[in-house]
Amino acid sequence: MTLSRQDFRQHIRTKRNQLSSDVQHIAGLDLVTQFSTIPEIKRAQHIALYLSADGEIETSPLIEWLWSQGKRTYLPVIHPFSKGHLLFLHYDASTPMVLNRYAIAEPKLDQTRILPAAQLDLICTPLVAFDNTGHRLGMGGGYYDRTLEPWFKSKTGPKPIGLAHDCQQVERLPVESWDVPLPKIVTPSQIWDWE
């Protein structure tokens, strides 16, 4: 029986939410070890990430490691006027945070901290599941699909890199016409590279 996209979302979200806090912590540290070896990180100065929610792989260790390497980090903020779009705001330890409409922490909107997405070097994307060809299944809102559209069309702008637990990998996802595979996904145990 073939699972629908929504079935995949529910199944994988349940799996990752069952991971203990110890497993989550170790996975976050192992993610740093893997991420630190990718060639793109050496050149990148402006890196968008996200704060973990709903069982997503713990990104705090990666953010702190990037700070220790002198990299500037940015977090997504739901655009207040352009429906379905994201802004990226500079993020450091003193950034004031608020909860967005999905109860996810994001930087308080401050125009002086916005960096246009095209000026980012890397965008680390959350995902619910990914398959052996790099297809990514998100939560269904399309925020990252819209953000990454220039890269998918012309390979210009910030490069997308998916971050995930190993348990989020499946053999094959149901794919829609608008889905474009990610070039790279990093998990605690390996780097999936389709370039």
TrEMBL record:
Catalytic reaction annotation: (6S)-5-formyl-5,6,7,8-tetrahydrofolate + ATP = (6R)-5,10-methenyltetrahydrofolate + ADP + phosphate
Highest taxon above the source species: Bacteria
Broad class of enzyme this protein falls into: ligase
Keyword line: ATP-binding, Magnesium, Metal-binding, Nucleotide-binding
Cofactor(s) named in the record: Mg(2+)
Pfam families assigned to the protein according to its UniProt record, in alphabetical order: 5-FTHF_cyc-lig
EC number: 6.3.3.2
InterPro entries membership: FTHF_cligase, FTHF_cligase-like_sf, NagB/RpiA_transferase-like
Protein name, UniProt field: 5-formyltetrahydrofolate cyclo-ligase
Keyword hit for Chloroplast: no
Species the sequence originates in: Vibrio variabilis
Family: Belongs to the 5-formyltetrahydrofolate cyclo-ligase family.
